Amino acid sequence: MAHHEHAVAHEVTMVFAVILLGMILALALEEKLHAKKSLITAIFAGVSLLVGAFYEILPLGPVTNAFGEHLHMPAYITAVDWGVIAIIFGSSLFVDATAKSGLFTWIAIKLTKASRGDPRRLLSYYGLMTVLFSAVLNNVTAMIIIGSLTGVSLSKLGRKDKLLGFLLIEGLLTNIGGLLTLISSVPNIIVGQTAGISFATFFIVASPYVIVATLATLWLGAKLFGIESLATNEERARAAKMVDSFEENDGVESPGYFAFAAAMTVAFVVVIATTSVLPVVSGLGMGFVAIGFGVIMLVRYKDTVDKFYASVDADLLLFFCFLFVVINVMEHAQVLALIGQGVEHLIGLGPALGTASTLVASAGFSAVTDNIPLAAMLAKILRGLHTAQASPLWWSVIFGANLGGNLTPIGSASTVVAVTIMHKSGLPMSFLKFVGAAFPFAAAQILLATGYVLWVVPLLN
What we know:
mainly alpha; 1% strand
């Protein structure tokens, strides 16, 4: 789509900044308003579009595609990142259909047996799996899969009282896993390509932080949520006896379909992880891959597919659609550009203070806005300042854009999914409650990242 630069009066930008703050406040008071997130963002999307049309800042005319064709599409259609929506929709279908094979129950019980029923060990296993899945898939798909496994395992162990802690920790770890490779998240790709950072260099620089941050998050999570190792021999013996009684094959109705589901899951992981380099598929994106695999798995249930469609979380999908619309309008209203100007002033504070301030500011803004346009804007600013490839400033943006998603439940797609799973499991989690629970983790991760970017990255880069 063609992008149109246009001047916007400062007063108009401030009007939209107030609208954005209003939406954030309404989401924070979600429980008191007794309104779903999708409805809140829908109202603010409608207000944003109406005000945007009034001030004539939106591209309401025809848009031009890559082939030079003029398309008449409403601004609220082009504003939505349909690739993300497709990933969520397709992954949900794939996970739901695959779960019918008993595969996830089988994996959950295997991991539970390997843990010998010890909650601390199970948290470690699931945490490491979350990071790896987020690195090679995407954080949304990882959260959907791991969240499903967690619910099954803790139910089997009679430890559902620990489910909230497990899900929150896993949601936070998805954004740490998103830092592992150049292709693990969109901000990584945007900033990495702009700075000219290679895949190998990115992994070498980011992986030590990911390892340390993962271990620190697991340790802190275990302490704060009381997820401890079994203390006595009697407890360990009782837990071991309990897990030994679990039969992983109980949920497998058809060995043939189980084997097919296992093969398709491996294929799904491989294809999703290599989508960007696969011929033909790379142009269609991960959303196409997710929906494609979902459709393949639904063929077995061809006469009852409507039940799977009904199980898709419409509130989650609509929340993202409306949120994308609001953020897109904010971009046209130059609200994100205003944020970028502030960050540019921070960069000018000096090598150390400027780098640290940029990381913290990037994290803060990513907590309440889409980190993709923010990363693109900051990358453009750094390139305009002729920032050297080895400068820690690039890494400030990368770490800040990824870790900021852990500050609020709307900071990243995976934290939204994590909260959705909590609600489905009957665990209340409001905006403010999430911020309160996640803040110690996010603060520790961002503080660790700041020190890492200042003192370790220059040695590795």
